[in-house]
Structures are given as C-alpha cells and as structure tokens.
Amino acid sequence: MRKTLIAILMALALVVIPAGNAFAASSVGVTVTADPLFLSITNLPTTWTINGLGGGTESGQIAVNTTYYANPIPNADDTTPPSATVLGTECYFEVTNAAGAETCDLTVTWGAFTGGGADMTNSDLGTNDTTKYGAYCWYSGMTTYASSKVPVKTSASTKMYTTGLAAAGTLKWGVEIKTRTNDWTGGTASTSTLTITATAH
C-alpha cells in the first residue's frame, strides 16, 4: 500500500511541475525613454528706448556721434558706462534659461535701424562712421569691462557669455551703442531688433 501511494504521488508531481521552459516567454519588451536636451531662454524687458531709462537727464531722444548705455542705475543716465567690474544694477536686461534646459552660452546680434530719421546700419566693428553705429555688449560680473566687452555684429557675433548658463539660471546684461556721425534725416523714430541667442555650452 505504501509503495503504491508513493508511486501515485510521484506521478502527480510529474503532471504539476512543467518540464524545462515549456511555458517561458520567448521575447520581452523594454520601455526606452529618450529625454531630449533643449534650448529655451526668455529675456526681459523686451524693449529699450535709447536715452529713455528715466534715471537722470534722459529725454528718449538721441544725438549723433554719442555713446549710450543700457544702464538703468538710479540717478545716472544712458550716457553713464558700467563699472570696471560690471554690476547687476548697471544691466538693463535679464536673460533666463528655462528649467530643465541645456546649459547654454549667449550671443548678441543687432540689426539696422530703419523707418525714421535715425536710420543707420551696424558697422560690425564696435566703431561708428557717417552712416553706421558701433555696439558692444557686457554682463554682470564681467571684469575689466573696457577691454572685455564684446562687439555686437549684425550676425555671427563673438559669444558674449561662454561660462555656461545653467538650467533655471539668470544673467543680467547690457549693450552700448555709438550713433552715426552724420546728422539725422528727420524727426521720426527709427527702430531695430536686438537679439540674444542661446547655443549649447
């Protein structure tokens, strides 16, 4: 009786336990996530009236052959340059790198003034002449401003900021312009586009 019972149990075990890999999956899916690097910046404010920041003697009107700075420091005016080591309070603009965005470098370009009596093109040299303006850019914390400021061109400017602005980081910056030497041709305002561009660090 005992031998018979053992034989029956062994037979049941063979039925219940699968042989080898008879019921194993032959393929398994894997979820792969691709999280892209991206560039995304914002800049404020989005306008600047040259010689119109309201700190001192500004009128919102400009003279020929004169240098103006995007410098909002109180009790100064747009003809006041930044300090040797540029202060944040001397920078009119602030650029912000988006949260989660790639660390970026920053480049500034500036096109022609058109549509009024103060039309002029960018010399791309930082110097002015009869029909062209010269321009430079700088940022908070830049040392030896006079020799470190970066010429602003119509296109393909040298990078202004190469240290790398991290995600969610901010940077204050400014520009200066030396107007053309020829007299203006009329009393209506001309406009241009100043552009700051992010590239991967």
Structural account:
This protein is mainly beta and 201 residues long. The protein has one domain. Helices cover 9% and strands 26% of the residues. The strands form two sheets. Strands 1, 2, 3, 5, 6, 7 and 9 form a seven-stranded mixed beta sheet that branches. The longest helix has 15 residues. The protein is elongated and about 90 Å long.
Alpha-carbon distance between the two ends = 84 Å
The count of helical stretches stands at 2
Report helical residue fraction.
Answer: under 10%
Give the strand tally: 10
Mean pLDDT: 89
* Uncertain regions spanning at least 5 consecutive residues: 1-14
How much beta, percentage-wise? 25-35%
> Could you say which structural class the secondary elements and strand pairing correspond to?
mainly beta
Kindly provide the radius of gyration, computed on alpha-carbon positions and rounded to a whole number of angstroms: 33 Å
Q: SSE string, helix = H, strand = E?
A: HEEEEEEHEEEE
How would a textbook summarize the main sheet? 7 strands, mixed
* Shape, per Cα inertia axes: elongated
> How many structural domains are formed by the residues?
1
